[in-house]
């Protein structure tokens, strides 16, 4: 009698090569997602990242925190956003930078990737703005006697004040961290793996003040709304008068382009070069796995 033994599921994380395959397969799935589903999924991601940004604002509104404590606690609070994106499922523009490896493997077209990026970027913006509206109507910025509103203005002003190229390079660094966290999410076998795996890279980029375009789709309009709503202006730091539509567009242009470079080139193409199928053969034409 033939006995069939059920295959036990592996609890080990995926290898880097398996992660690369998963990233490429995900890219194929993303470009085949119906438009309306893609838009709604992107709106979820924009709102989720906005919720993480709101958590950051509320936590860091405590002026008694030391510099290090505020950076650490704020970074950990912001992780809520990517936890929701990876565990609940949604389309995040910065993470979709990794789709470039699918283009390099000829599994999706370059034009298909660009369309996905545009739709997801706009969907993320819509979701973030809806989150701004909900937060404003709920009066959340009144927390800590209005200090949360003041912090929202201060955060937005600090993100607009630096030079364009400074913001651009901060965007590069940001999405290196974010896309590495997304790859950890692909490697994970459980929700706990995903959550624990992304804590350090995400909290690190937030603590270092890097620029995430989707987070800024919430931070900047939220600061603008707070300023118009009459919350007390920050007593020190960047000039709050820069928090307006021109300043928002200024930051988003630099952060978005920097995020593309950081995610697509420094992570997506770099890992494709190391782990893509073209690397299956060594420099002398032998299999890379050969003895």
TrEMBL record:
GO CC aspect terms: plasma membrane
PROSITE patterns, alphabetized: FORMATE_NITRITE_TP_2 (PS01006)
Q: What is this protein called?
A: Formate transporter
Hey, which family's this protein in? Belongs to the FNT transporter (TC 1.A.16) family.
User: Does the keyword Secreted belong to this entry?
Assistant: no
The record lists the membrane-crossing segments as: 38-60, 72-93, 114-141, 167-186, 198-228, 248-274
Family annotation (PANTHER family)? FORMATE TRANSPORTER-RELATED, FORMATE_NITRATE FAMILY TRANSPORTER (EUROFUNG)
Localisation: Membrane
Q: Which InterPro entries match?
A: Aquaporin-like, For/NO2_transpt, For/NO2_transpt_CS
Q: How does it sit in the membrane?
A: Multi-pass membrane protein
């Amino acid at each position: 009698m033939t006995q069939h033994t059920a295959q036990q599921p592996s609890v080990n994380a995926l290898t880097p090569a398996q992660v690369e395959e998963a990233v490429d397969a995900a890219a194929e799935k993303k470009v085949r997602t119906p438009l309306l589903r893609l838009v709604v999924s992107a709106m979820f991601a924009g709102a989720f990242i906005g919720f993480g940004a709101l958590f950051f604002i509320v936590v860091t509104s405590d002026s008694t925190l030391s510099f290090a404590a505020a950076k650490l606690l704020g970074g950990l609070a912001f992780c809520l956003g990517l936890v929701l994106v990876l565990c609940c499922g949604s389309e995040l523009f910065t993470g979709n930078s990794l789709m470039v490896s699918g283009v390099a493997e000829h599994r999706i077209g370059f034009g298909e990737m660009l369309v996905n990026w545009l739709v997801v970027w706009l969907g993320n913006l819509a979701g973030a703005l809806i989150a701004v509206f909900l937060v404003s109507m709920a009066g959340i910025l009144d927390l800590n006697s209005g200090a949360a509103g003041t912090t929202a203005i201060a955060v937005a002003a600090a993100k607009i004040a630096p030079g364009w190229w400074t913001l651009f390079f901060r965007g590069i660094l940001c999405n290196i961290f974010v896309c590495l966290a997304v790859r950890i999410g692909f490697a994970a076998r459980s929700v706990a793996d995903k959550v624990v795996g992304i804590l350090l890279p995400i909290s690190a980029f937030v603590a270092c003040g890097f620029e995430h375009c989707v987070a800024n789709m919430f931070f900047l309009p939220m600061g603008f709304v707070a300023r118009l709503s009459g919350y007390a202006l920050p007593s020190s730091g960047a000039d709050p008068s820069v928090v307006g539509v021109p300043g928002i567009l200024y930051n988003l242009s630099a952060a978005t382009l920097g995020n593309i470079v950081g995610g697509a080139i420094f992570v997506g193409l770099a890992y494709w070069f190391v782990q893509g199928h073209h690397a299956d053969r060594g420099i002398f034409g032998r299999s890379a796995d050969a003895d």
